[in-house]
Every structure is written in C-alpha cells, then in structure tokens.
Amino acid sequence: MRLTDGRIREGVWSARLESEGEPGPFAVTLRDREVPHEVARIEGTLWEVRVPIPPSLIGEGIQTGIVAEPGGRRLAHFTLVAGEDAGADLRAEVDLLRAELDLLKRAFRRHCAGTARG
User: Which domain of life is it from (predicted)?
Assistant: First the structure.
C-alpha cells in the first residue's frame, strides 16, 4: 500500500492509495485520537482515502495527523498549523532540530576520527 497526492480541502484530508486488491487496514490519528476515514475505489488498483477533520481536533499550534498500518508502518502524514504564534512555534522547532543535527554531526565526526586512529 502506498499513499500519494495528499491535500486538505474544505476540512477534508484526501489522498490516493495504490493497492493490489482490497486495501489492508490502517488507522488515522490526530492529537492521539483515532479519526474515522473513508476509502473508495477510483479504478483498478487506485483508491481514494478521505479523512474529514473534526473541528474539535483543530486548535492553536501545530498538529500532525498520522496514517499508519496496525504494525506501526507510517503510510502518510498531514500537518495543521493554526493560530497567531504558529509561525514562531514552527521556527523554534526547526531551530531545535538544527541544533540537534549539529550535535549529532559533531559526535559522529569524533567517532569517525577515533575509529580511524584505531
């Protein structure tokens, strides 16, 4: 199973799902809650997944919806950004990720240098 072309329009996240035969089970979660979804065949091995986003789950900040198989394999995700400070939250998160990446790069370089010396 593979999901592509995800987008949000009029409060509904939709994507195309490619699957040989009937699609296997999967769950959509947003803010740690399972969200109902619909799957309809378009043609052949192509299906459409529709997830109406409940207004009660939309709020300030950044929320990420996850589409995953029962074993945990992530098929797709979507992000909702809302509120006045959402841009600042996003920039702060990116800055934190950059700092963590720099830390990992330095540790990796030290490890490689130590291994090369033997």
Answer: Bacteria
11: left (phi over 0), alpha (psi -120 to 50) or beta: left
Residues 79 and 110 grouped into a single domain: no
Residues 77 and 90 in one domain: no
Residue type, 27: A
Sign of CA dihedral 54, 56, 61, 64: negative
Q: What's the predicted TM-score (pTM) here? A: 0.69
Dihedral of the alpha carbons of 19, 24, 30, 35, in degrees to the nearest 10:
110
Longest dimension (CA), the chain: 60
User: Cα-Cα-Cα-Cα dihedral of 84, 90, 95, 97, to 10°?
Assistant: 160
User: Do 91 and 75 reside in the same domain of the chain?
Assistant: no
Based on the fold, state whether residues 65 and 76 are members of the same structural domain: yes
Q: What is the pLDDT of residues 103-115, one digit of tens each?
A: 889 889 989 998 8
DSSP H or E run through 115: helix 86-117
